[in-house]
Amino acid sequence: MAKKIVFMLLNIDPAIPATLGSPFFQATVAAAMELEVEMYFSSRATSLLRQGVAAKLYPSERHDKSIYDFMRDAHSAGARFYACGASLLENDLDENNAIPEMDGVRGGAAFISAAIEDDVVTLTY
């Protein structure tokens, strides 16, 4: 059985908020199941780590919970959030405007290293 789950957030798009809730909900569930959870933000998804972006997005009109609320739930449950170093400039993200839940910056080698560990499941969104 897996002991860790690694999420790659590459194809979700803040311009399409309906794509954003599921990864964070699943990360919360995985952390509650006592799995180690790492979430890697790349491409446009990295903008979610900038203050104010995710707080304005909702998965649908029927939700009164923002994407940032989903992110805080996942982080509070134990998920760790890492920005792709190559996508920082593209998304106008730095340590001064990052959400407090961002745990650091990691590159492709860190993601691949985590993804190929024994007892790890990798999901991509």
What are the SSEs and their pairings?
Elements lengths: L3 E6 L11 H12 L3 E6 L25 H11 L2 E5 L17 E5 L1 H8 L4 E5 L1
Parallel strand pairs: 1-2, 1-5, 2-3, 3-4
Helix pairs in contact: 1-2
Give the second-level CATH assignment, the architecture.
3-Layer(aba) Sandwich
Low-confidence stretches: none
**Rg calculated over all Cα atoms:** 13 Å
Reported for the largest beta sheet, the result is:
5 strands, parallel
| The CATH H-level homologous superfamily | DsrEFH-like
Count of extended strands: 5
Order of helices and strands: EHEHEEHE
Q: Count helical runs.
A: 3
Q: Assembly state here?
A: single chain
Fraction of helical residues = 10-25%
Q: How many domains in all?
A: 1
Distance between termini?
Answer: 22 Å
Helix-and-strand structural type: alpha/beta
The CATH topology assignment is Hypothetical Protein Ychn, Chain: A
How much strand content do the residues show? 15-25%
Label the overall shape: globular
Mean pLDDT: 96
